[in-house]
């Protein structure tokens, strides 16, 4: 969901500002060197929410088709990551967890909006966006007994040798139905938008 406003000028050009947020269930592999359980361990990172604020510049290639680019600030969150021993065929849980983190970053993107003639204010929007986030360190820790990490003792997993450095990059593509409320002759969409992913 999101909110924003656009201003149309020179008959073809549009500039605007916006803020949006997303709840998600995006996962990806995360490998790390962790002493005491072999050379490597691997887990599934989960990105569960993000939000962005930024601006955009667009050009009307047809009366009802807007192409645009956007950029701005973004923040995202990754949940706890359970790490598994990849030196074993069965991928046993090591007992090691990389804690959840929130990252700040920047994004750039672009897309196309198509307005429906039969219902003024209703748009179909398709957009791609790439985001680069800051690098952060986190300290892996052991959470269960009877696993690879507990056999070496917790102190092994709270030292600086087991700091894990992460710098996420995300790529998102989405298509939405967006309704906008126009407030003036030169305002293409001064709007509080409700977006429905399709």
What would your notes on this structure say?
The chain has 198 residues and is mainly beta. The protein has one domain (2-193): Porin, CATH 2.40.160. 0% of the residues lie in helices and 65% in strands. It has strands at residues 2-9, 13-32, 41-62, 65-78, 81-85, 93-98, 101-115, 122-133, 136-139, 141-142, 163-166, 169-179, 189-191, 195-197. Strands 1, 2, 3, 4, 5, 6, 7, 8, 10, 12, 13 and 14 form a twelve-stranded antiparallel beta sheet that branches. A hairpin with a 7-residue loop joins strand 5 and strand 6 (93-98). Residues 152-158 and 189-198 have low confidence and may be disordered.
What brief labels describe this structure?
198 residues, mainly beta, Porin, 12-stranded antiparallel sheet, two-stranded antiparallel sheet, elongated, disordered C terminus
- Count of beta strands: 14
CATH hierarchy class name: Mainly Beta
Structural class by helix and strand composition: mainly beta
Query: What portion of residues is helical?
Result: under 10%
Q: Order of helices and strands, N to C?
A: EEEEEEEEEEEEEE
Provide a brief overview of the structure.
The strands form two sheets. Strands 1, 2, 3, 4, 5, 6, 7, 8, 10, 12, 13 and 14 form a twelve-stranded antiparallel beta sheet that branches. Strands 9-11 form a two-stranded antiparallel ribbon. With 198 residues, it is an all-beta fold. 0% of the residues lie in helices and 65% in strands.
């Amino acid at each position: 969901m999101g909110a924003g406003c656009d201003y149309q000028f020179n008959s073809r050009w549009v500039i605007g500002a916006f803020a949006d947020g997303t709840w998600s269930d995006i996962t990806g592999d995360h490998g790390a060197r962790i002493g005491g359980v072999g050379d490597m361990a691997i887990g599934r990172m989960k990105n569960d929410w993000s939000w962005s604020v930024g601006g955009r510049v667009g050009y009307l290639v047809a009366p009802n088709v807007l192409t645009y680019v956007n950029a701005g600030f973004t923040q995202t969150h990754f949940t706890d990551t359970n790490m598994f021993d990849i030196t074993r065929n069965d991928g046993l849980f090591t007992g090691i967890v990389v804690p959840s983190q929130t990252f700040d970053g920047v994004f750039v993107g672009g897309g196309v909006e198509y307005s429906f003639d039969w219902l003024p204010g209703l748009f179909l929007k398709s957009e791609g966006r790439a985001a680069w986030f800051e690098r952060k360190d986190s300290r892996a820790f052991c959470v269960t007994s009877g696993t690879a990490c507990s056999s070496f003792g917790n102190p092994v997993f709270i030292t600086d040798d087991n700091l894990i450095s992460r710098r996420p990059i995300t790529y998102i593509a989405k298509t939405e139905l967006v309704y906008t409320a126009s407030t003036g002759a030169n305002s293409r969409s001064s709007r509080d938008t409700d977006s429905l992913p399709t």
